[in-house]
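Lab meeting prep.
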Amino acid sequence: MRTVPTMDYESAAREQGYLAICGIDEAGRGPLAGPVVAAAVILPPGYELRGLTDSKQISAQKREKLFEELTHDASVRCGVALATVEEIDRLNILRATHLAMARAAQMLQPKPDYCLIDGLPVEGFPIPSQAIVKGDAHCLSISAASILAKVTRDHIMLQLHDQFPQYGWDKNAGYGTRQHLSAINQYGITPHHRRSFAPVAQATLPLEF
């Protein structure tokens, strides 16, 4: 049975005196190529959008529709940011993800005074926050952020696919599918591959004789 996200977490934060509460989620921690993208969303109290839930539970077509509705609603405040492949390789994927999340939250107007973050606690986050495991399935503003992050990243990977069609990023979004790994073996890596990730790193090792 699919979980229906609510605004209970946002309401609880308002009862504590917070005024601008955003939900934050990311897309792209696992792929071998492309940036990690984070989104932060402030929904107005009582907000409703039919079908809004964890982006992983719905089709790409439905995600696109929800993305359009969220981004064209003047009552919804959205911030989307990324961490580059270079930052992922330099910082590690976890720290780069947290960097993208902070950037997304700091883009919002009004600035949030409290953040509901999908996953585990983020140490040192610049805004007071609460971590919610599987928050994208339970907290409505995190669900909205999951849609924005996923669709934005998919759009980025489609653009990169136009430059490097042999890797199939229009289908695998940079994840390590069999076809993607085969293409790495055949064509090598691109500037958009994460050199710190094992399958990519192995592809760049010199041969030993």
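Slide two material, second protein:
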Amino acid sequence: MLGPNDRVRVKVYGEPDITGEYEIDAGGQVSVPLAGRMKASGMTTKQLERAITSALSKDIVRDPKVNVEIVAYRPYYILGEVKKAGEYPYRLGLTVMDAVASAGGFTYRANESKVFLRRSGSPAEEIYALDAPILVFPGDNIRIGERYF
């Protein structure tokens, strides 16, 4: 699903003025020349293709052929008991343990048995055991808690 800060490449065959890279804004909207401003957040690339095609079909472009692909995903965030908390670029197939490794690993105080994960768009954290691979998605917030001695 697309979301704020994702970057998409829109190709409209035969229309170089419309073809280009566009970023989804904080409100979940994307602005495409001649098609206008439209909702993109929560859509798949195929759904956005159909929305752009529909907008361009209204006496703007005859039989538009539109392709949408993701150029860059929004980042994920990791904080708590890791050596380098912060914002990191997302890649497909990323797991929580990959994210911890990107952040320099656990600190000596880290609770290495569970992770607190708040999915993008969700108001609440969920707790997961770290003994299984847990996938991370764009915009997720990962928090590694402190263990009690």
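Talking points for slide two:
The longest strand covers residues 66-72.
The chain has two domains: 7-72, 76-144.
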